[in-house]
Each structure stands twice: as C-alpha cells, then as structure tokens.
Amino acid sequence: MDEMEVFPVDAEDDDIVVTVNMDDGTDVECEILTIFEVNEQDYIVLLPLDEKGEPLEDGTVYIYRYFEDEDGAPSLDNIASDEEYEAVAKRFEELQEEAE
C-alpha cells in the first residue's frame, strides 16, 4: 500500500474511526489506537472494525508509518523492512504494558 490519506486525529476524542483503502481495493474501517514515535519516525496503530463498528475478534491491528504534510494533512505508508516492523511492534507492546 502506498501513501493513504486518513482523517485528522482529534486528541480529545478517544474513538476516532478512519477508513483505510487496502491494496486489494477494499475499504476497512479502523479505530485509531495510538500514534507514537520510534527513531524520529511517527507510526500509527489501527484496530480494524467489523460492520457493526466492533473490533475484530482475532485481535488484529495494523501498524503503518504516519506522516503529515506541511498543511497537516495525514497520510500512511507501509513499513519497509522486518527490522523496522519488529522495532515498532516492540515499542507498541511496551506502550500497551505501560497503559495497564
């Protein structure tokens, strides 16, 4: 998936839902769980929702690179390497443990 547009994050809203256009052309509604930084790059974690707006039962999350252009418009990009993904996934797990 190349860069994708998402809706802006409102820090005062806990349940922000965005639509992500997948590689196969389908749209997936997702809740934004968090945006965090690793090695000076922002990442976003999205929780896919079913047609009723409930989280999928399998616990799947999507993690992408997160960017904002000079006007503040957000976009997403795939994580390029296994090493980068592992570092980001590890940091996300740490954030989850800190939140408990």
E-strand count: 6
Shape: globular
Uncertain runs are: 1-11
Helix content: 10-25%
DSSP strand content: 35-45%
Secondary structure category: alpha+beta
Rounded radius of gyration (Å):
13 Å
Structure description:
This protein is an alpha+beta fold and 100 residues long. Strands 1-6-5-4-3-2 form a 6-stranded antiparallel beta sheet. The relative contact order is 0.21. It is globular. It is built from 1 helix and 6 strands, in the order E-E-E-E-E-E-H.
Can you describe this structure in just a few lines?
The protein is an alpha+beta fold.
Topology record:
Layout: E1 4-5, E2 17-21, E3 27-38, E4 41-48, E5 62-68, E6 74-77, H1 82-99
Antiparallel strand pairs: 1-6, 2-3, 3-4, 4-5, 5-6
Q: Key terms for this structure?
A:
single chain; 100 residues; alpha+beta; six-stranded antiparallel sheet; 6 strands
